[in-house]
Amino acid sequence: MLESSPQSREGETASHIFIILVTLAQFIFFTFFHKYIACYSTEPDGNVTRLSMLTDEYFIWLPIMITASVLVIVASIAMIIYDNYRFRKTAEISFSIIGIIVAVSLVSIFPFDFSVIPNDTAADVVPIVVTIFFILLAVFYAVTALVILARLRNYAARQETR
């Protein structure tokens, strides 16, 4: 049976708490400290110049990230409280769908300005690499969702034969 044993339940709870903490940290960083996503340079007089790598489109994407973070935190808390295999797997599929939405929105909105990078070659290459990364991330989330869905269907089929 795939319901949790006491040992695996403790591990699942720890995993959900870790997800909550990481999501909370990213929420705080992206909401309040996004100005530090920048290119820094030291001037001859010792002053540090910060050139933001984020465009105004960042604030179009930010509500998507905030909503995604809140959904993940709420679902993780619910998975701690309600220990049910089907619920847990459905929530994990939802996490993957949320990840796809966040990654695709980053590619489509692309709130980055890498022209502030002092190396011209890097400034040309980094947007391509970042775009490829987010596309691969969306593909990873899609494959993950499909695998979890297949496992959930297998589980449901086995439950029906009992």
Low-confidence stretches: none
Tell me about the largest β-sheet. Answer: 2 strands, antiparallel
Strand content: 5-15%
Globally, the shape reads: elongated
The arrangement of helices and strands along the chain is HEEHHH
Strand order of the biggest β-sheet: 1-2
Helix content: over 70%
Number of domains: 1
* Head-to-tail CA distance between termini: 11 Å
Structural class: mainly alpha
- Helical segment count: 4
Total count of strands: 2
Mean pLDDT: 92
Compute the gyration radius: what is it? 20 Å
Describe the fold and architecture.
The protein is mainly alpha-helical. The protein has one domain (about 5-160). About 70% of the residues lie in helices and about 5% in strands. It is built from 4 helices and 2 strands, in the order H-E-E-H-H-H. The chain has helices at about 5-30, 60-80, 85-110, 120-160; strands at about 40, 50. Strands 1-2 form a two-stranded antiparallel ribbon. Strand 1 (about 40) and strand 2 (about 50) form a beta hairpin. Helix 3 packs antiparallel against helix 4 (about 120-160). The radius of gyration is 20 Å and the shape is elongated. The termini are close together. The model has no long low-confidence stretch (mean pLDDT about 90).
